[in-house]
Amino acid sequence: MMIVIIVILVIVVFILARNLLKMSREIQELKGTAESRAMKMFEDWKKNEWELQRKVLEANLKREYEVRFQEWKLAEEKKIREDAINKSRSVIMGQVTEHLIPYFPDFKYNSKDARFIGTPVDFVVFDGLSEGNVKKIVFVEVKTGKTGNLSTRERQVRDVVERKEVYWEKLHYQGE
After folding, report:
1. How many other CB atoms sit within 10 Å of the CB of residue 94?
2. 139: how many CB neighbours lie within 10 A of its CB?
3. Which helix (H) or strand (E) holds 151?
4. Sign of CA dihedral 151, 157, 158, 163
5. 96-104: long-range contacts at Cβ-Cβ below 8 A with a sequence spacing of 24 or more?
6. Whole-structure pTM over 0.70, yes or no?
7. Whole-angstrom Cα distance, residue 126 to residue 72?
8. Which of 85, 84, 87, 81 is nearest to 145 (CA)?
9. Per residue in 17-57, pLDDT tens?
């Protein structure tokens, strides 16, 4: 009888061991499935959270740089306006000076002999005309400001005069 009990016990232990092994495998499968699900859920959460944080960051950066751009634009617009006013002031002062230069004390010709034409040179001076004795004709370009550089057209006129390519021509128009 003891043998029967031992055999029964061995069979029970064998069945229990087999069931325990089966349960252990099922636990491992469930553990793997749970880990896979947890990883997928984490990856989905991470992806969604990453996208959400990216959008929030983009919106904040966009807002910040729009504010900075508006501030820069206002500051630069003010500078541009001031620069335009200063340049306009310089141009107007230059134009006034061009017109008044014959009346300045250091203008070496009689102001009555100067004729303002503006472009391509500022004046043609008929030196001595007011006294009835023209001695020479002088092309005068007035420059104000820092550089005093001649424009291309002004240099061309200067070069023609220096080459003595200046002529007198009479045009007689009788009308119809």
Report:
1. 14
2. 17
3. none
4. positive
5. 97/142, 97/144, 98/122, 98/142, 98/144, 101/140, 101/142
6. no
7. 54
8. 87
9. 888 888 888 888 888 888 889 899 889 888 888 999 999 99
